[in-house]
Amino acid sequence: MKRMICAALIAALTSFACAALGEGLLGVTISYTPAPTSAPTAVPASPAPSVTPVAPVTQEEAQNAALGERILMRGMAGEDVEIVQRRLHELGYYLDEIDGVYGLKTRSAVYAFQRAHKMEKVDGKVGPQTIGMLFSDHAIIKPTPTPTPTPTPRPTPTPTPTPVPTPVPTPTPDVQGAPFALESVSLFVADLPLQLMLGRVEDEWLYPLCGVMSHMGFEHAYEAGSWQLSGKYSGIQIALMTAGVEGLNPGAMGLYDGVVFLTGDDARVYAYGDEAYVTEALLEMLGVNVLLVGGTPVIH
Description:
Layout: H1 2-23, H2 59-64, H3 79-91, H4 104-116, H5 128-134, E1 181-189, E2 192-201, E3 204-208, H6 209-213, E4 218-222, E5 226-231, E6 237-241, E7 247-248, E8 253-256, E9 259-262, E10 269-272, E11 275-278, H7 280-285, E12 290-293, E13 296-299
Parallel strand pairs: 1-13
Antiparallel strand pairs: 1-2, 2-3, 3-11, 4-5, 5-6, 6-8, 7-10, 8-9, 10-11, 12-13
């Protein structure tokens, strides 16, 4: 009898011990958390690229450079040109090398500054009026464009193909009847190799406005000495109005992105047929740059 009682007691104690290991002596669940494996080594972030700052122009530097004693324009060089480049860089209009040479990029920056301040004369030259505004407390800092967020792509149904109309070929201008020399020239427009009829006055090329801008995403229309251009993707509006007389139209009126200007000595426009032939300087006033690479015009 005693042996039966001891065996029952031992069985009960064994069952209690097993339950205690699973649920704890006080009914609290015992859990086991394995030791974490070695943590992955963090990859150090790449350092941000350093940007060489351009020191602001001081009043003493502007005086020592004799700023304002001459009208600065393309082809000039000197300390006063460097001072202008630094000030344009400070305001965000010129982001290239400060080299003291008044080149195409410096002239484009001056055009942009003059247009932003709606100055009376937008000619890409730095005269007394431009210098006064450039170094005044009212100079406008060029705003940094906010990047447009990329929209989430949505699946679109396959559209029914629309028949593409056959493009109307551009008529070849009458070379003999033109009020200036015309010549077929190989050039690049927005990285596209093209063959365009360019005008020639003395040693300067005249570029067909509509012929050039149509390859840069602009739609155009002509009516009675007035050319209207609209950027299909940029939304920029351009207009050029002459008296409707073939040949040189001095003092023609232009409009670029809301800024009105008059053509001048360098920025000239010649009308012939339904096309406006303009100089390199006028193209630059319309936001287009022209470079000569090995004698070949490159327009972008």
